Amino acid sequence: MNVAATPGQGKRMLTSPARVGVYAFLISAAAFFILPLYIMLVTSVKPMEEIQLGNIFALPVSFTIEPWRAAWGSACTGITCEGIRGGFVNSLAITIPSTILAILFGALNGYALSFWRPRGANLLFAILMAGAFIPVQVMIFPLVRILAMLGLFSSLPGIILVHLIFSMPVMTLLFRNYYTSMPQELFKAARIDGGSFLRIFFQLILPMSVPIVIVATIMQVTGVWNDYILGLIFAGRDNLPMTVQLNNVINTTTGVRLYNVNMAATILTSLVPLTIYFISGRWFIRGITAGAIKG
Amino acid sequence: MANVSIRNLNVHLDGNEIIKNLDLDVLDGEFLVLLGPSGCGKSTLLHSIAGLNEVTEGRIEIGGADMTWVDPSQRNIGMVFQSYALYPTMTVERNMSFSLRIKGLPTAEIERRVQRAAEMLQLEPLLKRKPSQLSGGQRQRVAIGRALVREACVFLFDEPLSNLDAKLRNELRRELKMLHKQLGSTMIYVTHDQVEAMTLASRIVVMRNGLIQQIGAPGEVYEKPENLFVAGFLGAPNMNFIRGSLAFTADKLTFVATPLNLDISGYAFRQPPKESQATTLGIRPENIHITPSGRLQGSVSLVEPMGIHQVVWINCCGNMISSIVHETVEYRADQPIRFDIDTSKVSLFDQLEQRL
Amino acid sequence: MKTKPLRLSNTLTSWVALVPMALIVIIGYLGTVLWTLKISVSSSRTLPTHDFVGLTQYLRLFNNDRWLLSLHNIAIYGALFIIAAIVIGFLLAVFIDQKVKGEGLFRTIFLYPYAMSFVATGLVWQWMLNPEAGIQQAVRKAGFSDFHFDWIVDQDMVIYTIVIATLWQAAGLVMALMLSGLRGIDEEIWKAARIDGIPAWRVYISIILPMLTPAISTAFVLLSTAVIKLFDSVVAMTQGGPGIASEVPTKFIMDHLFGRANIALASAGSIVMLITVLALIAPYLYARSRATEHKGAE
What we know:
The structure holds three protein chains of three kinds. Chain A is an all-alpha fold. Chain A contains 14 helices and no strands. By secondary structure, chain C is mainly alpha-helical. Chain C has two domains: 32-63 and 262-293, no CATH class; 82-260, MetI-like fold (Orthogonal Bundle). In chain C, helix 4 (65-96) runs antiparallel to helix 11 (213-228), helix 6 (118-128) packs across helix 8 and helix 8 (158-183) runs antiparallel to helix 11 (213-228). Chain C is globular. Chain C starts with a helix and ends with a helix. The relative contact order of chain C is 0.13. Chains in contact: A-B, A-C, B-C. The interface between A and C is large, with 98 and 109 residues.
């Protein structure tokens, strides 16, 4: 193989034909990944007559935003036909408290585990981590009964509590790992200065946790917003999140299927997490790698 | 023949001129050290010799053959890196034999070469171990072994000791020196540590900003530095510098920096000195002797005990002059003392910092 | 002398702070698992009965065609999905790592599907694979009138459509993991390999890949848990159809918990799933704890 070195590089740079191959691969892969997004967008602005012509790849001839209006305000999500805007509000009502509470508890747990280390806490933590792997189905029926006993089944507080339960492991892990990598000296100095458990937490640790809070927020918002199964079971008819309503719109309609409305609804449902993704960039990836390195 | 010959080398990286019009001859079997501060181009030069850098202009010959555009693996070189870069998931044996297996050499030949290298480097008991199970010194030897089995004729070292603590560094430095004695191969070594350079090199190349400042044996570079930069780079504590001028009197030539007045008639000037020429005088601390009968006067500013000697900082004539004292005499701060400067060991530099 | 009471109150506070976590672990995890276990050895239908029938439900489970089909499906799906995701994720990472222009753009494109919900993914692909108006029709209209791509309504092929859709979603994640692994590899290893004359592809296979074992095993664990949990995508994309051709264990359990009112059978299925998951992650966690012990000893 001929040398075509970029100066100072140990890594072998591929020669021109190989470089063309690299770009060819990446561009075709990119095309595969973008295709569904393209089709979603294009379908959502076509009138049904065009869609029935059967060319899914074609750009719209007559552009229309009617499907979007319908998806938002008049699509049928079961019995009512008021679009998925209700779901949007519900998803907000579910996601925001879940995120705030999960981060608060996760931070508190991580803080207690990494700085104070009470006895037996590590065992508890280990079980918490193992618990993250337990399939949801194992826990559903008991959880339904427990929530019913507490009078929280099919309610907003109920679904928030459920999300809290399921997100504890990852949140605790995130914060614990972050705090263990912080210098212990800061904490020791604060204790010498006479700080109490809560005071040190709120006045020293939490303000220093901004990066991990950002990562945790991204992960939690994305996870809760995109959830389907928990919302389906625990939220109750009045609080169904957008994902559940979306599935209802598309898969439980009788009669003519309005593909353009469906796609518009799909985009609307994905708007929040996608926006977070496109804006947060590196933070999103940090979240993946931080959460993935379990323990 | 394992000499390296570099002519008119120019290397531009990322739009910067790193190496400019460099000529260098590395002699067969010598231990050449490229010494200089960060960014002086020494690593770039080494990488260019290895073929890891693209050369903008110039010619590199290894063993008499033009290797300027040849693939690194075809240059008959071996290279040892700062991190040793051993393949972590392979045993010592596989690390050493990997390149030979790629080349497709017969198994018997591969075994023979690995055995021979292992014997020379005392790696036989370690052949089945992985790099993570080796000590720093053992890793260094494996890295060298990797180059040995390829029957390299020139060995390149890129600051291999920089990551180590002082004690290990001294130990491995001695091992390297013994290895060179044993193998007799040409070795080109890059470092920013002048102690390493002085102890290991048969010749030192001092570099700065992509240009060679001086090439010479350690003694020569130390005692007769070509310019102010080289003078200040080698030696710890640094060479003392005093600014002044030259003055002709009836029978002698003196260096004047009031109240200093030194007879430097014996100095080997390269060009005739001029009256009142602005000159910097350089004198190393070990050539300043504190003695009651000294001709010069000053007072003690600071004393640094080093164990084997003391460094006494003298306040004199507007300068802080360091002196190395071997006797166990105690000096107190502000103590007035007398000292002598050994004028046979001075170096003189002109306004352009070049040796006079 | 405020130290002693303060210390006591601090330890107490830290315990109190961990109470929610303790509750969740004990009631939420251990409690629910035990409860489900109890139901699975009873004959409960709509509501829990408190009898004990031994392993009857489990026997019924493994005599149930739908359950067996769901296991068959998840096994095929799992093998294909995991292998393909790791291979494609690895290749994407390797190619992106070649100092290409627009690396950030490529990364963004490959990873955005991961930000979408499983439901949305299933729905989009359902639309794209629609035989009448989706890709099959579009290609036919372009002239290839014999083109067939109706896998989604084909009983034998439908499981592959789910593989494709979820692969589209997850490959970016694997790529992100591999990329961070690749970036952690010492640059000097590459230089040494060049001097040794080792061709690039060989470096990747013999040197880099073994060094990426931690990243690969992390990816494997994440992907395996995703396989077990596969639910949303199937519900959205095929509803388990055509017929029950794309049935998966999670859907089986959910259907029996709610629609078909047989919570004992469903619980038995859940426990089987749990055991499978534990069997998968136990060696991983064990190896992890051995590794940290090793590091501690060094």
